[in-house]
Amino acid sequence: MSPSALAVTAGPEPDGGARGRAAREVVEAAAAAGLMLATAESLTAGAVVAALVDVPGASRCVAGGAACYTYAAKTAVLGVDADLLAREGAVNAATAVAMASGALAAYDADLAVSTTGVAGPGPDERGVPAGTVHLAVAASPRALMRLHSRGAAGGAAETAVENGADRVVADRADQPASDDTDRAVGNAADRSVGDGTGILAVRELRLPGDRPTVRAASVDAALDLLGTAIAQVTGS
Predict the structure, then answer these.
(1) Is there a domain that residue 41 lies in?
(2) Of the candidates 18, 23, 17, which has an alpha carbon nearest to the alpha carbon of residue 9?
(3) Is residue 165 part of a domain?
(4) 194 with 203: CB under 8 angstroms?
(5) Which residues pair with 113 in a beta bridge?
(6) Bridge-partner residues for 184, per DSSP?
(7) Total domain count for the chain?
(8) I need a surface site. Which of 77, 91, 156, 204 has the fewest CB within 10 A?
């Protein structure tokens, strides 16, 4: 085992539970692949990046995370278009994509995951119901070049990036979104956002439960989506 692998895996498991294991798997995979990660968080308020940095050695692959609750913060910190927020609000796929793309630029990362949603209680000011959550993963030009070069050699990766948003939740894509079902929103993979950045996945969730339950489930889903994106890029 290499010294870098030892540095990542040493120490107690964070939380000692499923979230700690998921965070450890993400950190180990990203560190082994030389990928830098970032987060852009609204309803989870930094809990995703906190789970990642609880893993010993996370500094090898976690660049940082932004917790942006207000529209103004999303625009100032992540560069989310103010007109988009005024027109559509914060809880939608387009805003999730813009947040993830903004985190890539802010932290010079290879992959960034975003979370935006309504934790409750009750709907938001636009009537979006509690439990509605949107996630996105953006990839830098470096990560996309790596994925495409691997696809040219192996034949499978280009298909994965072209259809990644659907493939992330392909086992549930034929079911309507409900209290316990997540679904891909459109075919967002490899969609350019104007600077060579690509969108590997967009996910919508309809989560049951109270505010803490919705926020906790959103953190777990974001870690899962980030792990899937790392696997797409690395072919693992």
Answers:
(1) yes
(2) 23
(3) no
(4) no
(5) 39, 137
(6) 203
(7) 1
(8) 156
In this structure, the chain runs to a length of 236
CATH number of the domain that residue 116 is part of: 3.90.950.20
Name the band, by pLDDT with cuts 50, 70 and 90, for residue 150: low
Query: Which DSSP state fits 120?
Result: S
Structure tokens at 211: 């505010």
The pLDDT tens digits for 19-28 are 999 999 999 9
Task: Indicate the DSSP class of residue 111.
Answer: E
DSSP string for residues in 30-93: HHHHT--EEEEESTTTTHHHHHHHTSTTGGGTEEEEEE--SHHHHHHHH---HHHHHHH-SSSH
Among 185, 41, 7, smallest CA distance to 117 is for 41
User: What is the distance between the alpha carbons of residues 104 and 107, in angstroms, rounded to a whole number?
Assistant: 6
Alpha-carbon Rg for the chain in angstroms: 17
Joined together, the tokens standing for residue 134 give: 């949107």
Contact assessment for residue 190 and residue 156, using Cβ atoms and an 8 Å cutoff: no
Q: pTM to 2 decimals?
A: 0.80
Which of 99, 174, 175, 108 is CA-nearest to residue 137? 99
Place of tokens 């540095």: 7
The per-residue DSSP string of 169-209 comes to TTTTTTS--BTTBEEE-S--BTEE-SSS-EEEEEEEEE--S
What's the start-to-end Cα distance of the chain, in Å? Answer: 18
CB 41 within 8 A of CB 103: no
Containing domain of residue 56, as a range? Answer: 17-152+195-234
pLDDT confidence band for 163 (50 / 70 / 90): very low
Supply the mean pLDDT for the chain.
81
